[in-house]
Design goal:
The complex is a heterodimer.
Chain A: H1 12-18, E1 25-27, E2 30-31, E3 33-34, H2 45-57, H3 68-87, E4 96-99, H4 102-117, E5 123-127, H5 136-145, E6 148-152, H6 162-169, E7 175-179, H7 191-200, E8 204-208, H8 220-223, E9 227-231, E10 242-246, H9 248-253, E11 264-268, E12 271-274, H10 288-304, H11 306-326, E13 330-332, E14 343-348, H12 353-362, E15 365-366, E16 368-370, H13 375-381, E17 386-390, H14 397-414
Parallel strand pairs in A: 3-15, 5-6, 5-7, 7-8, 8-9
Antiparallel strand pairs in A: 1-2, 4-10, 9-10, 11-12, 13-14, 14-17, 16-17
Helix pairs in contact in A: 2-10, 3-10, 4-5, 11-14, 12-14
Chain B: H1 7-14, E1 27-33, E2 38-46, E3 52-60, H2 63-76, H3 81-86, H4 89-96, H5 102-119, H6 122-130
Antiparallel strand pairs in B: 1-2, 2-3
The chains are: A alpha/beta, B alpha+beta.
């Protein structure tokens, strides 16, 4: 079943009614203006209900149960895997490994593929705009195995420097890992082009899709990538579950990541043999209800259409950038709107991001302040911290107005 | 306007009274909170009886962290080392006069952490810091 991709614009008013939390007041008489979806999205009642219904009517542990309830729970769990696989264009649901989140998906690749394939003298190529989750797992492994890590630089307008990237590929890295959308700059990277270049240099390609999969059409076959990591909680699903897509030949050759039940074919006191995909990488009882919620989340997004969601966010970010740039003292990071997802990280004259976020919170506006798990990038830009507003399908032009009004209130305090 | 940003905090942030470095000094310590980029250094001069005669702080960060450092630096002048050591976080919070959530508490207490790290020996320090 193909994911339906309509070009209809979103009915944001109707969408907002799906998200119960958007009805709450943060302080008395002050409604919530949620601008932190890049950290985690809110959940529609379709997802919340799918999970509570599952707990109320179908819950049991999955696999191997010889009773009706266990069979139903297993069917619901595996159906979720299929829908998540279809959502990113995987050929088979066996190529979808459920993990705790995108971070664990990347750690799975580093620990399994990395240990089997990397050693002294090897190179892993990342970019300067990576989240810590696509830096630290490689640093941990490099200190053990002795390979090198290089970072493809960003340009002055905060896009990937493809010339330098091409130069670094000449050093024949074994793996190239990069984000499809920066969680700070908002930059959307040309994944298909970067993957083609990396493959030509003989590298395996890992894409961090934590910020992109929730917001745009991401198809692993069209992009021709080897691994894709993403998290349910950033795409209207529950926390506690994410996924790794992997190219089948690679997954089949890779050694297991964690040991335990479910990942084995046979265990003796002195040995074990590993079972098939995807169970090989899913030791222990998985996040079962979370998988059901993940399935409901991709159903919800598919029904609205990822192209329509992307289009809505493009309009929102364009407007947000225009309005932000009019506020004296605001400097937004990242490239122009056409190269960007719905993320606006900014500095605001001398006001520290913590103070900005705190004053905005008094007005119900939830933004994030800090380094957004991208300390090396902030260091490169010479900034200890930034304030970040991020947008999703439920955000409206009025939300941007609330942000801007809040920033003028910040100005008043610090003027 | 806003409880957290009462006049005292904003005034101290914009017009700190105790900003600077003391060179030479008897005690100096610097620490940061990498999560938010707050950084504070505090320098003390102490007389023969172990009483703080001069104090100064430098650094950067949010209004809460810098105002807290300014107030604390002013407060320690005239204190004996024992008084500095026994100065509690509750006393500092009371001086600030604002209600802080757990995240902002870290901003407010960075200056006290720096002060205590500066005057304690390393052994005593860990125990004291654990209590912060």
């Amino acid at each position: 079943m193909a994911v339906p991709q309509t070009l209809d614009t979103l009915d944001v008013g109707a969408i907002r009614k799906d998200f119960p939390i958007l009805k709450r007041e943060i302080h008395e008489g002050v409604p919530l203006v949620y601008l932190d979806s890049a950290a985690s999205s809110q959940k529609p009642e379709q997802v919340i209900r799918a999970m509570s219904r599952f707990y109320e009517t179908e819950y049991a542990n999955v696999h191997r149960g010889i009773y009706t309830l266990a069979e139903e729970a297993t069917a619901a769990f595996e159906s979720a895997r299929e829908r998540v696989g279809e959502f990113v264009g995987a050929e088979s649901s066996r190529q979808i490994i459920f993990t705790r989140n995108a971070t664990e998906a990347i750690n799975l690749v580093s620990n399994s593929w990395g240990r089997a394939n990397l050693g002294e003298g090897d190179l892993v190529l990342l970019t300067e705009m990576e989240h810590h989750s696509n830096i630290v797992p490689w640093q941990m492994l490099a200190s053990e195995l002795g390979f090198k890590i290089e970072y493809a630089p960003i340009t002055d307008d905060h896009r990937i420097d493809l010339d330098s990237y091409g130069d670094l590929l000449e050093r024949q890295p074994k793996l190239v890992g990069f984000t499809q959308m920066s969680n700070v700059l908002g930059t959307i990277n040309p994944v298909a082009e970067m993957a083609e270049m990396a493959h030509a240099a003989g590298a395996v390609v890992l894409v961090d899709g934590a910020q992109s999969v929730p917001h745009m059409v991401v198809n692993v076959a069209e992009l021709d990538i080897d691994f894709l990591a993403f998290s349910a909680h950033k795409m209207c699903g529950p926390s506690g579950i994410g996924a790794l897509y992997g190219r089948r030949e690679l997954l089949e050759e890779m050694p297991p990541f964690m040991g335990g039940g479910e990942m084995i074919k046979r265990v003796q006191f002195d040995a074990f043999s590993v079972t098939e995909l995807p169970s090989k990488f899913e030791a222990g009882t998985p996040p079962i209800a979370q998988a059901v919620g993940f399935g409901a989340a991709v159903d919800y997004l598919s029904k609205l259409g990822m192209r329509a969601i992307r289009q809505h966010e493009q309009e929102i970010i364009k407007r947000a950038l225009e309005q932000l740039e009019e506020v004296p003292g605001v400097r937004v990071l990242g490239p122009a709107a056409e190269h960007k997802g719905g993320v606006a990280a900014f500095t605001f004259a001398d006001a520290h991001p913590h103070d900005v976020a705190q004053i905005l919170d008094r007005r119900g506006v939830a933004v994030r302040a800090g380094h957004h798990c991208a300390m090396p990038l902030h260091e490169k830009l010479g900034l200890p911290a930034t304030t970040r507003a991020s947008f999703y399908l439920y955000n409206t032009p009025e939300d941007i107005d609330s942000l801007i009004e809040g920033l003028y209130a910040v100005r008043e305090v610090f003027a | 306007m806003d409880d957290l940003y009462r006049e005292q905090i904003i005034d101290r942030y914009k017009n700190p009274q105790m900003r600077g470095n003391l060179d030479p000094h008897d005690y100096s310590y610097e620490d940061d909170n990498p999560l938010c980029g707050d950084r504070i250094r505090m320098d003390l001069r102490v007389d023969g009886e172990g009483r703080v005669t001069e104090a100064a702080f430098s650094g950067e960060g949010c209004a809460i962290s810098q105002a807290s450092a300014d107030l604390l630096t002013e407060k320690v002048v005239g204190m004996s080392m024992d008084e500095v050591k026994s100065f509690t976080k509750d006393e500092l919070i009371e001086m600030l006069g604002i209600d802080l959530g757990p995240v902002r508490l870290k901003c407010a207490l960075l200056s006290l952490k720096v002060l205590k790290a500066g005057v304690y020996g390393l052994d005593e320090l860990e125990e004291e810091l654990a209590a912060l």
